[in-house]
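From the pipeline queue, job 12 of 40. The input is one protein chain; the requested action is below.

Action: predict structure.
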Amino acid sequence: MERLTAPATGPAAAPATDPAADPALLRRVLGTFASGITVVAAVGDDGRPAGLACQSFASLSLDPPLVLLCVGKGSSSWPAVRAAGRFGVSILAEEQRTVCEALGRRGGDKFAGVAWERSAHGAVRVTGALATVDCALDTVHEAGDHWLVTARILELTAREGGSPLLYFRSDYATGAFG
């Protein structure tokens, strides 16, 4: 195993390698943490869905029920989702790689060929997802090159069976959990 920090010699021990100076190293190391892939989407002012693929999503609080997600500041879809104030988080199933690829690209009609429905809360739910979380925007914080977003859970749905689409070491992975 490669050692990435110097031995600690006190509270001010400095790392042997500055991860900020090596983004490739940062991606390689943090990429060993497998994460699920979600689609965060809302209906825009024009009545069309707007959304993005997001792997930085987690449960935050049970009381009150909150989730968090991180969205890159360069996202062209986030402004429409944020303006809607309500959005859906669809947790993708292993067979939904093409959905992730469609929502992960820049520009164009990301939802062309992607089946979805509008929930009673106005959220976009991707058809076939393992689960969906309808959300109301709570707070948005600046966090480096991302927005850290918290959202209140309005409604939850989950399908029976299936396995998640995962992201691991900069590529797709699947896990037999079903």
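Job complete. Residues 10 and 166 are 38 Å apart (CA to CA).
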